[in-house]
Amino acid sequence: MEAKIRILNCVFLSLIGVILLPACQGSADPSKAPDFTLLNLQDEFVNLSEYKGRVVLINFFATNCPPCRVEIPDFIRLQDQYGSKGFAVIGISVDQNGKRILPGFAQALRINYPILLATSKVIRDYGNIYALPASFLINRNHQILKHYTGMVTKHELEPIIVNALGIKD
Hints:
Mean pLDDT is 86; it is low at 7-29. The chain is 39% helix and 20% strand. It has helices at 2-20, 66-82, 98-109, 120-125, 154-165, and strands at residues 37-39, 45-47, 55-61, 87-93, 115-117, 134-138, 144-149. The chain has a single domain (2-165), classed as Glutaredoxin. A five-stranded mixed β-sheet has the order 5-4-3-6-7. A two-stranded antiparallel ribbon has the order 1-2. It is an alpha/beta fold. It contains five helices and seven strands; from the N terminus they run αβββαβαβαββα.
């Protein structure tokens, strides 16, 4: 039964991409990360603009996505290592029942960064997320430095983060 639910969730996420793809709207500055206002797990609104001046990794994920689960420990380590130096990770969940399943998921994995609930608008604004995971690394001015479709590792992210933070060896 659980396998059928996972398959249905994957089909649903794929359909979202197919449905939203024609609605793609370019922003005025394609290199600028679109601002968003999304709910976190405590029912508080969070805006990307609150992170101005920080280097941010925005990660779109789903709890039933195996590659998404694999990369989360690296994001936790990056948050621990560089959070005090001006870096932040923001997880954006595309799960259907996020409010119900995400608190236990975040606690079990000891996620140390905010988890927000995706809307169709944020999915559209970020290029109609059609594959998971999808991540955007943005600089202090919220220019997109790198977009990753598929799993990304600490090894791949760290040199770009260190450079964007201006950390010298």
